[in-house]
Fold these 4 entries.
Entry 1:
Amino acid sequence: MDFPNNPVSRWLIKKVLKKADAITATSNLLKRVCIDLLPASETKVQVIPFGVTVPRAPSEMPPSDTIKICFVKGHYKKYGPDILLKAMVLAKNKITNISLSIAGEGDMTPKLKRMVSELNLDDHVNFTGFVDNREIYNFIQQVTFL
């Protein structure tokens, strides 16, 4: 979806889709984009969701006085981590017992860390760095259950 949307790029993508024996997409939206580009690809596209494996019986969350939020994504403009930090300012002005754990890395990481300081969120936001996809559920559980 981030591929440049110009005639040459569209031609190249269609050519690749046409030659593919099978196509995987991580969401129904991406499947729809493939089919819109090349309707003949409909029978070749399968959705394999990108996600977090959750145990069949997740642990019950212990009671807490703090509202705990997690952001687990690359630190890139398109995911809006800067917008989340601005929202945290509004939230902490109404709810003093709120915390945000930010996992991941990206080109915005230095800017986000500066924003936390500039927005006076040091006591409410912590950065944990990259979390492997297989460990995301454990990360969320640790952050929200502590």
Entry 2:
Amino acid sequence: MVKTKSESVPDPTRGKSLMYWEPTYVWTTKFLNEHPELKVGAEIGCAAGQHIKAIMEETKVEKMYGVDPYITESWDMHGFFDINETYGGFDGLYEEVCDMLSPYGDRVEMVRKKSTDAAPDFEDGCLDFVFIDAFHDYENCNNDIAFWHHRVRKGGYVMGHDWDHGSHPGVQQAVVEHYGDKVTGISSPVHVWYIQV
């Protein structure tokens, strides 16, 4: 029996994610295409992997690291995905994400660790950009910025999701505390912030 495309390349979002976050993906891929010097990046908090997939398909980024532990205590997406019912647990979701991204070969490397545990594996200045989209509370976003800012080289970009988002005020609070008025924030429906370091 020949596999269909949907069987051979899974969609862990079950077609949902683009409805919610397509404006973010469109903005990010456009930004990366306008900055071709940004060749190596990391996404902190990957969920169903659709953002990395969009970057792989729409840009010439050479390498993306996807950092996400895929565990209950590091997940605030329960309103979007029923992990146990849909995937049989986090191992199932992680496997589907890896399968979906496998056609991109060495261009994608998944790192199944908490953000703060994974950061020491990366040397300071080794990344051209980082996109922070993990836990959306103040404390965790603050930690993610603190741990990942220095992994980005001078002239690169620290970026993230959920700027000016009514459900996640802690994100903007943490970003502004770190970067003040130097940060650029883009409101709904994009909800992206960024700063050149």
Entry 3:
Amino acid sequence: MSEKICIVQLADQQYYEERSNCVKSVASYCKKHGYAWQGYVGSLDENTHIAYQKPLALLRKIDEYEYVGWIDMDVTIVDRDFDLYDYLLNYNQEVVACRDPSFFRNDMINSGVLFFKSSEFCKNILAKWWGCRIEGTDKHWRHQGGGDGSADQEFISRILSANNITACNPHDLNITPRRYRIGDFAIHFMGHKPVDYDSFVAYAEKNIHDQELLNKYWMVYGFQSYDIIDRFYEYGRENVLADREYSPEDIYRCAKLLIDIDVIH
């Protein structure tokens, strides 16, 4: 097995097109570090909502790499220098998953960023997760089953807990924008529509090539961004605070000022 890591992503066509800049950031990160990237657009199982197909997509690739990872398409990589392979080796756990970064689900795994070692143990975990899927596509995925919104995350949380897999700090791999700290690997725009972040991701990918400046850019973005409680579209809550609207250029200029005056975060 020669290749170290494959990162897998899956979504329907519309979801992908609306978040393609986040996907580009993931693919670019993989290319920089020599990792494989596999993107799927469209369902892998017509009888199952696409949101429940993560384990199926991961099982397709797990035998080909040392680690196979899942990253949601509303996640952007913010530390382009992060040595993911070294992190996974040193974490020394076959499944790496973060606690949910939101304040109200901190006892649950967030399934937006996950990594599995190529092993029979992990294949069994993924098979069990796939076996928990709710069949049918007539309802929104968050309203299938019990309808409490936990969906696939509840299933994988239970499976990992039963196998004594502990969750890592969300700052390691999977943090929300308002909670971002310099050094975090990725920002997960969970619950937000692309209007909140897509132009900022696109600007960073096109215009910011220095990691220190990129750190400051996302730090400033985090300070002014909406919190999950303000803009959680998936549950029908939206509290628009217009005086907090800034452009990517505004954020960039502020980040440049922080670099110029050597502000420590």
Entry 4:
Amino acid sequence: MVSNLFWMGKRSIIFIFFSLHFFYLSAQDTLPRFSVIDKGNNRIQIKWINPFSTCNQILIQRSFDSSKNFKTIFSVPSPKQPINGYVDNAAPINNMYYRIFYVLDGGNYFFTEAKRSQDPNVYLKKDSTPSVEYIDKRTIVVKKEDSILYTFDVGRFEQFKDSILHTTRDTLFSKTFDTVLLKSFIPKEVFIPSIYIFTEKEGHVKIALPDVPQKHYRVHFFEMDDTPLFEMKNIKEPFLIVDKTNFIHAGWFKFELYEDQNLKEKNKIYIPKDF
């Protein structure tokens, strides 16, 4: 009898533990649960808590129907973040259906149930009841390549993430459950040819200058490492051709064009490999 009572008590404790654990997760819309809130002006907020440290992909999908024709509208760049969300600013109507597709390490994937948006006032009323708070005490490490840049608690990391998102073009990627990589935005250089000094079809350099009789022009040519190559002073002709052999080798060269001792343009030219 005592043994039976012991096991019954143990089962009760286990049941209570899992009940509390379930309440802890469900009260905070933990995956596979999530919240869909109508923010007005066809802006729909989807938010969730991710308890899976092995999550490697999260897709937000929407449809006019609750069971079919779902299309992916957003791929979450940092799926391992425990508290996350997305605002759909292009919802055709404010009662679309949404679901979340997520993938765990090993290839296991899941679809949540489809949900439509709630009235924000109803959601606030529901959330105003006491519930167990989700507390994430992790330390988030932000790295750039192999160097540690910052160490934040989760709250400060959320502020940092928002700052990166809204004030820079850099990108954050989750590497592990507590490590984030910062990748700097590197703009592609766009070459805009000069209208004064440029390479013509034969590969020679053409110089075309306006108002030569009234102006004093000179041009400096440089290697790309700023080593001086040669200079042309007191240019008196409106059109000149500089033979490509003056540039010694093929490739890019810098130049500076001066007009009446003032720098008019800094640019570059390309000498092709055909001589």
